[in-house]
Write a structure and sequence with these properties.
The structure holds two protein chains of two kinds. Chain A has twelve helices and four strands, in the order ααααβαββααααβααα. Chain A is mainly alpha-helical. Chain A has one domain: ABC transporter involved in vitamin B12 uptake, BtuC. Chain A is globular, with a radius of gyration of 19 Å. By secondary structure, chain B is mainly alpha-helical. In chain B, strands 1-2 form a two-stranded antiparallel sheet. In chain B, α2 packs parallel to α9 and α3 packs antiparallel against α6. Classes of the chains: A mainly alpha, B mainly alpha. Chains A and B meet through α4, α10 and α12 of A and α6, α7, α13 and α15 of B.
């Protein structure tokens, strides 16, 4: 591996990692507040891909991108209201089964509406423009992704630490009932969490699929699981952790593929999960949880 | 109701089922659809009960069923494919010499081993899956249930990736899959294996171990305080559940006659979860009933959702390929959201309950309310 190809792979890895990080934030925020693995998050991400395909048919990209974000946010909030809110107090397993049910429904609905055949992802001309630094060349999206990810994360952290909404979210994630007693509107706060998560998933989806060029009803499953693992790696509930986890998994995966182990690159992520759970269950940046009886 | 009366009823039911199966076996060609569906339902009921053992009775949310089934199916298939067909099956890269000589040695064995071979294969498939379960159960079972769900889901995807990888070509035939697997002799045999598996699991659930499992499900801390070794019992439930999942996977391989890694994708686990939820999380009979019902409606009764339908010459727009699965996912959601008990809740089938229901049906005013 020459130095130039090495840097080329690093760049691809960082770009993939950026998209993963944006999705992982959605998992980590929902888990932080509801203690729920939102199995449907990967499918929301997939649906954002389809929204993009259909809105690019009629609109130019300047209108299509905000439209896709809006539709994805609506989808995320509707899922929360319909499938998670009614059973918020039910046993943990019911909520998880409900989340799986939603994921199953979205996949089957997408298969029904758009068929299982891969659909071509539209090209946004300026993102696809080839860009060159020294001997490394890549499309613009590869350079934009990590920068955009970092900017969005900084914005998100500012939002969480310095605004009223952010304070409410922190309060709800610490203690549900006490937050309610302090006059925080729990439902609004949870909806806000889903809005932010879905928005980031929509942006992540645009960045991810632009490099991959086709969408199928099942193309959300594996990225979804990997991003959840990224969130666990970084420490579930921690936003910087999710970003670091996303980048780490993206870079590792790219290098495994580059070295010719593409069949095992998916398996690697899950082995990583088991290793984290064995040696550091709270992840890199997670707080230690104490179970009270 | 007296005990002897119940015994008589149960015996009659057993004879009726057996008679139905023998009748179907004799008229296989005429009732081909019913025969196939019943057989598939019987096979899926084994894995549904095993998932219920882990998820419903011990409270461990495991989503690795498809992976364990894949292990069972491949081990069974490799054991059972006759030596003379080996060349046709592994036509791409040949079979590993070790396996070939082992199969030759098996074929040369006495006649009764040939007869018992399917059962031996199913058990060995189960044991292999149980070993894997022990291996991943050790790190993962110590953690909270949601991590278990993701880790087992991941495990089943890893199994699939490894089975279909080119490095495994000489063992699993890579992505081409295995075919020419000998099937069941008759549906009675399938039913017999299922009865043995389910009975073993019911016996386990009725033992002290089963009580410990239920205690863990209700409250881990209280169970531990009562002296139940959490790690040991969770591990045990997980391993036994995986064993029976793999047996069911082996049966599925014998039923389908040809398998490949795509058969055992995550959606297979979701299908089984659907069965368990509809039957009632924590009810063995519920799972068996739901397995038959769901399989029958999915493959047979509700097939019409996938075909274009016209009523009085007007084309109904929704009916086309894929609509059936949308309906099924909506059913799963509706059951989880509004009807969490499923068909049976945590109850088991009993003649008393049936009698009560029956009496209620005949004279709605007298029965029911008072007794409750």
């Amino acid at each position: 591996m020459t130095l130039a190809t090495f840097f080329q792979h690093v760049l691809t890895g960082i770009s993939l990692g950026g998209a993963y990080a944006l999705i992982a934030i959605g998992y980590t925020m929902v888990y932080g507040i509801l203690r729920l693995i939102n199995f449907a998050h990967g499918d929301i991400f997939m649906m954002a891909g389809y929204f993009m395909i259909f809105s690019m048919v009629t609109f130019p990209w300047q209108i299509a991108i905000p439209l896709v974000c809006l539709l994805t946010v609506v989808l995320g909030v509707v899922i929360e209201r319909v499938a998670y809110k009614p059973i918020r107090t039910a046993p943990r397993m019911s909520i998880m089964i409900s989340a799986i049910g939603v994921s199953y429904l979205i996949q089957n609905l997408a298969t029904y509406l758009f068929t299982a055949l891969p659909r071509a992802y539209p090209e946004i001309p300026f993102l696809k423009k080839i860009f060159q630094i020294g001997s490394i060349s890549s499309s613009l999206v590869t350079f934009i992704t990590p920068v955009l990810t970092i900017l969005l994360v900084i914005g998100l952290i500012l939002l969480i630490n310095h605004t009223k909404v952010g304070m409410a979210m922190r309060a709800v994630s610490k203690d549900f009932e006490t937050a309610q007693l302090m006059g925080i509107r729990i439902n609004n706060t949870i909806s806000t969490t889903f809005i932010i998560g879905s928005l980031l998933a929509a942006i992540g989806s645009i960045l991810y699929f632009t490099d991959r060029s086709s969408v199928t009803p099942f193309s959300g499953t594996l990225p979804g699981l990997k991003c959840f693992i990224a969130a666990v790696l970084g420490g579930i509930g921690s936003i910087p952790g999710a970003v670091v986890g996303g980048f780490a998994i993206g870079i590792c995966e790219t290098f495994l593929v580059a070295m010719g182990y593409s069949t095992y690159s998916d398996a690697f992520t899950f082995v990583l999960l088991i290793i984290i759970l064995l040696f550091r269950p709270t992840g890199l940046f997670g707080e230690k949880m104490i179970d009270k009886v | 109701m007296t005990k002897s009366k119940k015994m008589i009823y149960t015996a009659i039911l057993g004879v009726l089922i057996l008679a139905l199966l023998i009748f179907l076996e004799a008229n296989k060609t005429q009732y081909g659809m019913a025969y196939t569906i019943l057989q598939k339902g019987i096979i899926l009921s084994v894995v549904a009960v095993s998932m219920n053992l882990v998820t419903g009775f011990t409270g461990l949310f495991s989503l690795g069923q498809a992976g364990f089934m894949a292990i069972g199916a491949y081990v069974t298939a490799i054991f059972l494919i006759p030596v003379e067909n080996i060349k046709d099956v592994y036509y791409i890269s040949g079979i590993a010499p070790g396996i070939l000589s082992f199969k030759n040695w098996l074929e040369a064995g006495p006649a009764f081993t040939q007869m018992l071979l399917p059962y031996i294969a199913l058990i060995i498939g189960g044991v292999v899956a149980a070993l894997f379960a022990a291996l991943i159960g050790y790190p993962v079972l110590r953690l909270k249930s949601d991590y278990l769900a993701i880790a087992t889901l991941g495990f089943s995807e890893i199994v699939r990736a490894i089975i279909s990888s080119p490095q495994m070509d000489t063992i699993t035939n890579g992505s081409y899959g295995l075919k020419k697997i000998p099937g069941f002799v008759s549906i009675v045999e399938t039913f017999g294996i299922m009865v043995v598996c389910v009975l073993l699991m019911v016996l386990l659930l009725r033992s002290t171990y089963g009580r410990a499992f239920r205690a863990i499900r209700e409250d881990e801390v209280a169970a531990e305080a009562m002296g139940i070794n959490l790690a040991k019992h969770k591990q045990m439930s997980f391993i036994i559940g995986s064993f029976f999942s793999a047996v069911s996977g082996g049966m599925l391989a014998m039923f389908m006659r040809s398998i490949d890694s795509r058969t055992f994708s995550v959606s297979l686990t979701y299908d089984i979860l659907l069965i368990v939820v509809i039957g009632g999380i924590g009810s063995v009979t519920g799972s068996v009933i739901a397995a038959l019902l769901v399989t029958a409606s999915k493959e047979w009764w509700l097939r019409f959702f996938d075909n274009p339908l016209a009523i009085g010459g007007v084309q109904i727009p929704f009916f086309r390929t894929g609509f059936r699965m949308v309906i099924f996912s909506i059913i799963l959601l509706v059951v989880v959201l509004f009807y969490q008990k499923g068909i049976m809740g945590k109850n088991e089938f009993s003649w008393e309950r049936l009698e009560k229901r029956f009496k209620k049906l005949i004279s709605p005013k007298k029965g029911g309310a008072k007794n409750v």
